[in-house]
Amino acid sequence: MPKLKNGDTELLLLLLSWLVLPSVTAVNQTETLPGCQAKCGNLNVPYPFVWSFDPCGAAFLGEQDKYTFRASDFYNATSLVDIPIVINFAVDNQTCKAAKKNSTAYACKENSYCIESIDDTGYLCNCSAGFEGNPYLSHGCQDVNECEDPNNNPCKGICTNTRGSYNCSCPDDFYGDGRKNGTGCTKKTEKAPVLQLSLGIGLGLLFLLVAGSWIFYILKKRELSKLRKKFFQQNGGLLLKQQISSHEGGAESTKIFTEEELKLATNNYDHQRILGQGGYGTVYKGILPDQRIVAIKKSKIVDESQLALFINEFAILTQINHRNVVKLLGCCLETKVPLLVYEYVSNGTLYQLLHKKSGMLSCLPWDVQSRISHILDVGIMNEEKTQQVFAVAELAKRCLTLKGEKRPSMKEVAAELEGLSGFERQSWLQTVQQSNEEHKHQEYEQGDLYSIPVGSYSLNDTSGQYSLEKPMLQSMNVPR
């Protein structure tokens, strides 16, 4: 018999005997009558709990809250058979962990699990979820068919029983998880296909938009690359490469910049980077990736008939290295109008040197300043040799002639400066002289493309005319 625990079960002692007169006296409580049990398992039964006229009684186990005494129970004891009994018992005197080590004696069979008893006197077995029966018997725990009762199964839609569990689903034209405690099953309306169709069309259009943008970007990039190559060839890029390669050291001293490099250097030609503007172009301040500061000339028009001459003179100018000449570092031929890249001069312009209060001529009388400012570059006054000073002054006077045809060309100025410095002329200077003879009587058009505007390397000149040799002339006006 299982071990009964005091307090875990309720013992009801019912007297199934005839009522007698109230004058009947009770039997001595210490007496134990023959034939009557004093214990039920390990539980002591209080005795006597009977009237003296009939010392024998009957007792039963039951849950106290499940039984209500009635007078008819004295006459009809069969009404007691349906009272539930709660029994707390345990298997062996081991824990689940220890019991599992001995598979032969382990009491929990298939589809069951072990739990510890609440008073640590052993272990108990329960059927696993989805199974019911006796866990202590082989095959005692059987699968519970949750779908067997259509009214009480957990599914609102279609219930499919599985071993130890079940699945719920919805019929066609319904959506949801099919569970009573979930979203259930809802009939699909006409809006659902419309929503799906709209979503599909929207995603398709989005894909086409992204794909179209990507294709447009690729085609635009290819078109821009072809256009840059076209401008490079059109602006004499191939001829310039030949000119540079023909001069010794030309590749090191001259660089052909790309359009992207100059855009990056000028912050996409930001207005705050403008050094000066003229009628034929704008000069920007640029910062190269190596942190060099340069002046970038962006012209507005181009004379295609002068491109060959420009390329020849450009190749020559890049070879000049004189302290009174602004260095021409390179150019960009990938744009419709070629861009020129000059060395940036931070000492100011001739106008600033002549007219500002802090200028070098401020200490001289005004009439002397006025006379000198018309014929002499202030930067040349620092020359040590008087003969060179007079020679440069004469050159400056010729350069300031109002009539363009009487002014020396840029090549002539470069040649004379090289001669004044005492350096032996290179072979390319001989070519310059020959070219000078050929173009001696040629007049340059007013407002040549490759001139530097007044706002940048300005001479504050009064003629208002600009020619191809002007960048060289103006560059000499800044002390180095």
TrEMBL record:
GO CC annotations, alphabetized: plasma membrane
Domain Protein kinase: from-to ranges: 269-480
Signal peptide: 1-26
Amino-acid positions noted as binding ATP in the UniProt annotation, renumbered to this chain: 298
CDD domains referenced in this protein's UniProt entry, alphabetically: EGF_CA
Subcellular location: Membrane
Major site of localization recorded for this protein: membrane
EGF-like domain sequence ranges: 143-177
Protein name per Swiss-Prot or TrEMBL: Protein kinase domain-containing protein
